[in-house]
Amino acid sequence: MELAEATSRRRFVKHAAIAACASVISPSVTRGDEPPRLSFQRVVDLTHTLSATFPMTWPNPFVLEQVSKLGKDKWNAYRWHLQEHSGTHLDAPLHCTPGWSADLIPVDQLVGPLVVVDIRARASSNADAQLTPDDLKAWEQQHGPIAAGAVVALFSGWDTRVNDSRKFFGLDDKGGFHFPGFNVEAVQFLQEQRHVKGIATDTLSLDFGASADFPAHHYWLGHNKWGLENVAGLDQLPAKGATIVVGGPKIAGCTGGPSRVLALL
Asked: Three-state SS string across 58-84, please?
């Protein structure tokens, strides 16, 4: 009886120790105050491939210079010559304000629920279409309030024009630009009343193409917020329910840069 009792006690102690370890390693199993874990079934790439042919207004925005070649040398290597605001890229506050450079943006500000506001119908007939507070309110009537900490994307369908620079720029006969963008009152609403983390557009600029003074840029970045330009693939996403992950550049003092942007579903 003594041996059996001792064996039983050892088993009890062993099982209790295992349970205690499990509660430390996986506290969400036993505690009810842990935040829900993120789960997803699909990843959508919201990034255009950057090459020398990508439409940009800057001269020679992207060049790859081969400095080492496999065969002659031990590996392939390139030196990049690029303008920060090329391809799918992040605009950091420093781009046009004294705010954060891209490397200083806290990483938790680069992940959040994604709101996709579809203005394709209007943009198809008006290249100067702007996302307005009315568009945001119409979205909320259908999907509920835009959550604090969300990222709001303007979906104009403009990414389908990326292989034709003239169409992507919306050039007129005088060389003027015409493409959709954010109305400054919309970004004011998102900052002051919805407190979102970032904004994104599938066009060349946060401001619409014909803008002369870029008010959306200056207001939004001036509040130490970031923006994404030239995003792709918004047609693969629902209006609500995706999580965006922005792999922004972490280069000291940079005003932005090409970024890998993902949506998790």
From this structure: CCCCEEEEEEECECCECCCEEEEEECC
Does 128 reside within a domain? yes
For residue 140, the cross-strand partners are none
Give the containing element (helix H, strand E) for 143.
helix 133-143
Q: What domain range includes position 17?
A: 1-33
- Asked whether residue 177 is assigned to any structural domain, the reply reads yes
Instruction: Name the DSSP class of 30.
Output: H
Q: Is 207 a domain residue? A: yes
CB contact burial 184-203 (16+ within 10 A = b; e otherwise): bbbbbbbbeebebbbbbbbb
Give the type of residue at 6.
A
| pLDDT average per 10 residues of sequence, the chain (265 residues) | 45 43 37 68 98 92 95 95 97 96 98 98 98 98 98 98 97 97 98 98 98 97 98 98 98 98 98
- In one letter, which amino acid is 226? W
pTM equals: 0.86
In a domain, 189, yes or no: yes
Helix count (H) and strand count (E) of the chain?
Answer: 7, 13
Q: Quick one: 20 exposed, middle or buried, by C-beta within 10 A (0-12, 13-18, 19+)?
A: exposed
Are the CB atoms for 246 and 29 separated by under 8 Å? Answer: no
Q: Which of these, 74, 76, 56, lies nearest to 64 by C-alpha position?
A: 76
The C-alpha atoms of residue 118 and residue 184 are separated, in whole angstroms, by 18
CB atoms within 10 A of CB 63: 11
Q: How many domains does the chain have?
A: 2
| Distances 19 to 24, 200, 263 between C-alpha atoms, Å | 9, 46, 37
CATH value at residue 67? 3.50.30.50
